[in-house]
Structure formats: structure tokens, C-alpha cells
Amino acid sequence: MKNIGKLLLTIVFCLAACQVSQALYEDETGKFDWFKEHVGRITHAEFHSGGKPARKHVYVATDSNVIAALSTKTGEIVWRRILDPAEPVDLIVYHGSHVVSVSGRGKHVRLWDVDGALIWDQITVTDAPRPAAGVPSPVDAEMVEVADKEWAVAVLAYNTVQVRAVSDGRLLWSHQPPQPLLKLSVGETRTAVHALWHNTNVAATQASGSGGQWGLITYNIKDDTMKQSQAFAAPAAAADGANLLQLLGSEVLYVDGALVQHYSSAADQLTNYPLAPFFAAQQLEPGRPPLRVHPIGTSQGFLVYSEPTTPGSPASSGNGSSGAAAAIFKLNAHDKRLTMLTQWAQGQQVRVLSQAHAPAAGSTRWLALQTAPNEVALLDVGCGSLETFTLSAGHQHEHGPVELGWLHVVVPRKQADQASGTSPPAFRLLLRSRDHAVHVLETAGPPKGVQVSWVREEGLGSVRQARLVPLPPAAASSAEPAGQPDEVNGGGVLAQATARIKA
To answer: How far apart are alpha carbons 97 and 110 in whole angstroms?
Structure first.
């Protein structure tokens, strides 16, 4: 066994002679031995798309108060900015050559360039009052065009809509309606901001039923005018905290019982679409999990789907008796028709992970769906085609099921068949798993097809406290003769490593 120790010592010295080695200076003792950068559990992501200067980045925000850019090729951190511990990141918005961050529950609005330099920092609470204690205060943001090639950011914070110039962050205008605002949206031209409000106070609930009332406020940015819709009865499930109201541009969609209800701001009209032709009566009876909706491009209508079980729950793999059949519909707003695109077995989990549009078009074209804990699918909402991709067999064992996803579709302009939907697009899908690991699923071209290009472990990024503990000594081998020399059993690092290898 002496010879084994000497052999290992010789190998270590040989490796040190041909590899770059790192060591600590005496004055660095007790400061750090190694260093690893993390970003934390990702909550928001925006892919760099078509802006100048060109960057192969995905911009992320995390629950560790971090804003960062990751390389889409390797997953390495390109730049990272850590905000104050008391300033959680609410959301980020990417547009062209800038990234807007809203943090501190809507208090701070910042503009960053694509290389991580801070351009300006503004505070919203100087112009908007704080909400009452215990009252939720949604935060949202959208990019809008105030003039030809002049952009601004519209921010919803403290129940006030503010529009600030991208150039210097100055406040252009603000408005605080009496109704509680829920979210913002912009149309394809990005010249108007639509604010959805949802009132669940006692008066609104008694006037409309258990779901309260909702309505839409439209702010026309260029001519500085405002338009209010009439008030409508909200679905009963919305009062229970299930946010069923979906907004895209100037259109609102939600499901109330067995009806899909679609509101068009242009006509200021609410249209009902019955689901009875597509579902059995028992699948729509009260007590079932509520149906969900997801808007796509306004020129293509909306999608609606049912989410019978929580992803990864035991019921999702049973016989499906726990909920309505999962299905996705396309609502053709022009001819008032509801068309089923895809239907799954009763009880199978289906939920929307992300959406994306073609770079040459303004409307949403594809949806990324989770159809099983370890399975994602890409749905072309134009033609209804669905392609399913299964992650590796060991993925769920190593990382747990997928929790969130962000889709980026890249359509090569030279391939017209991809733009028309006759073949699947080139895409990247950033996925976050239960253990906070992030990985990119992307098209690698034939013959590889779709594969996971990189995985980034972020479990340590959420650690708040840690303690170093000594490793237990390796158990002596029963075949090891007593009285080994100190070079093997002694206190040196090499000796301890040798002892553990032999054990």
C-alpha cells in the first residue's frame, strides 16, 4: 500500500507541472478559497431578439434580487447586477437595445443597456400614493411608442399608470383611476395602453354577483386621450383569487361556467361562446377545476384550455376522473366561431409555459405547452400543428418536473416554408425545473433535431446561510494492515485523500 501512496503523489506532481494551478497567498487566508457566481431562481426571462447592438443574450430576473444576462450559447453569466436585499425584482421588459426593470413592488424603475450599464433610475412613489395595508397592488410594464421612433415605458404601480421617456426617464404623464387596476397590455402598433381593472368590493360584488366587476381603460399615447369601457360582471371564480381575466391588446377573454366570454374594445361588446358542443355535461358541472384561457395575437383570436390537475400531481397520471378533459381552442373573433385545435385524454395535465411570435409578424404564432412533467410541446396556433419533445429519462430524477418556460422562436428569413408554418421553426426554450436548474431546449438541425444545449445549476443561488462542517473520516478497510505510515493515515491533504481513495 506504500507503493499506492507514492504512485498517487507522483501523479499529482505530474498534473501540477502541466496544468495551470491556483493557490492562496498568505494574506488571503480566511477570505475565500473558491468563488462561484449564481443568479438564483429565475422568475422572468426575455430573449434578445433583433435589437442593435446584436447580442446572444437572454435577460433574466430572479427571486434573489438579481438582474443578469446569460449567454444563449453556453448559459454563462455575461453580466450580473444585484439589487438591494429589500428590493425584489417585480419584472423585466426587453425592447430593442434596452432592458427595463421594475423592482421594490413597483417603487423603482430602471433602464439598462444590453451590456448591463445603468442608464437611469426613477422612483414611482413620488408621483403615486402607497396602497392601503393588506390591499394587493399589481405591478406591470409595457413599452409604447409616443412618437415616430420615440419610445417610453408604461408602468403600473400603486394603482397608477405612469409613462416615462426611455431617453431620460422623465415622467410624461400619469393617471390614477378609482377602480383597482389589474394589468396592462398594448396593441400590435404599441401606440395605446390598455389597463384592465377588477373590482371585488362589496358594492361591485352585490351589483354583479360573487365575481365583482371588471372594465377596460384605454390610454391613447399620441393624442393623450382616455376611453373607459362599460362595467361587466366578472366570473365567480375570480373572486376566489383565481385570476381568470386575460388581456391582450384591447381584447379581454375569460371563462364563466360553460361559456367563453370575449370582449372587443373596438365594438365595446361582450360575446358569449358556449363550450357545451366540445365537452360532456358532467365535465362542465360546478365544482370542477376552472377552465383557463390564454390569448394569442389579436388578429387570430384566443386560445382556451382546461387545467384539470396541478402539474406533477398524482391525479394527472390517473384515469382523469378528477377534472375536465384538457383541450385547446382557437377563437376566430372575425366570424365568431370557436374551433377545437387539440384535445388530450381526460385528466391529462396541460398548461401554457410561454408564447412567441414570428420576428416578421406582430401576432403570437407559437405556444410552448407542458403536457407531462417531463414533456413539452410546441403548438402552431395558425394551423394547429403540435410537436412534442420529451426530455431525457433522468431529467426528472435529477432536477424534478419543469415549472416555468420562456420561448424564443427564430425563423430564418430565407426559409419561407417555416414562416408559413409548413415546417417547425428554429427555437430556443428556456426551462426552469423544481430544483431551480435552468436549461435550454433548442433545435440543433438534422440529424440531431431538438436537444438540451446547456444546463445551469442554480440551487446554490438561493442559499441564504451556510455552515462548513468537517467530512467524516473514511472507514479503514478491513483488508488494510494495521500501522500504516503517517504519509497515508496522517493529517496532510494528500495523505487524507489517499486514505479515502484506498478505503
So the answer is: 14
